[in-house]
Amino acid sequence: MISVEEALEAVLDLVEPLDAENVALRAANGRVLAHPVTAQRSQPPFAASSMDGYALRRAEVEPDAMFKVVGEAAAGHGYTGTLRAGQAVRIFTGAPVPEGADFVVIQEDVTRRGDLITLGHRVDTKDNIRPAGGDFTMGEQLSASRILRPADIALLAAMNIANVPVTRKPIIAILATGDELVQPGEAPGPDQIIASNSYGLAAMFEDAGAEVRMLPIARDTVASLKQAFALARDADLIVTIGGASVGDHDLIGPVAAELGMEQAFYKVAMRPGKPLMAGRINSTAMVGLPGNPVSSMVCGVVFVLPMLRRMLGLTEVYAPIRSAPLGREINANGPRAHYMRATLRDGALHPDDRQDSSLLSVLAQADALMIRPPRDPAQNIGDMQQYLVI
Description:
With 390 residues, the chain is an alpha+beta fold. It has seven helices and 28 strands. The strands form eight sheets. Strands 8-5-7-6-10-9 form a six-stranded mixed sheet, with no helix packed on it. It has a six-stranded mixed sheet with strand order 18-15-19-23-22-20, sandwiched between helices. Strands 21, 24, 25, 26, 27 and 28 form a six-stranded mixed sheet that branches. A hairpin with a 2-residue loop joins β25 and β26. α1 crosses α6 and α3 packs parallel to α6. The longest helix is centred in the C-terminal third of the chain and has 19 residues.
């Protein structure tokens, strides 16, 4: 039985960043930028007015000064002439500043009669001009690797990038096993339960950027398991659920070994999630998760999500570990690391009294996994604890 830290190193060694592919900008949100992208133009591409008003020469700005309006500039329709002494151009927000002008007086500081304007007694000294390239210039880069957010998509559009290089989505095949399982919506027999783990894990992995394939439930026979593994052959990662222990009906290990699996480890000193297995079948990484629902989901957070981030090419593969004071007293921990379901209330961590690995209702109410080291002594209210956001 190895530590959580050793198991994490082992599972990360099983995967590497995937290749890049180009997708349309409209499809790039939430994807991982695989390579730096270079701006194809500057923004703004010209000096532009930031206000509605009149463009003129700063040197001529003084109280009660008068100017003749010789034209108009609007967004998408610039003034093509050159501004001369004593002249002004009516200008609107976003319009190019005419040649010869270097100041925009806002319309509130102006009185207009016909084609003549008169400045007020107190004109704002701000020039109200956005300089060319003030946001970014042609040739500047958006760095990789990063998960593209809506603001990044807007920036790429302004850079005139229509197709974006992103890391290919990892294909994760989820294989639930067990004669006791039926799909949601089916009528379970008297000795059966509904398969829930695969649905929760699929949602988790898809949220993190994977393409998930949920395979048919494999029965507790060698033939059924071999057929299921054959369906997962082209996946980047195979995640099995259940059957990874050492009981008479736990066949994942023996069947995987028969198919050529090179086991990296089996069993981790953690709770929930002790019967965790990982390795590689030919060139495909495989993780065998426990069958208990909470164990399966917790191991998905702790181990599979970092693997997924590495495959996506992200540099920060580990979820950030945060700290908060304890909201209630807890007893000493045992010899395994304990990932306790907890809620954050009023800035404090409140681990639930019920930590059984079968209780999905407790997990659904939790927003944190409080991490207790092996043999951690009893803790008091206010003691700082580490946790993962879930």
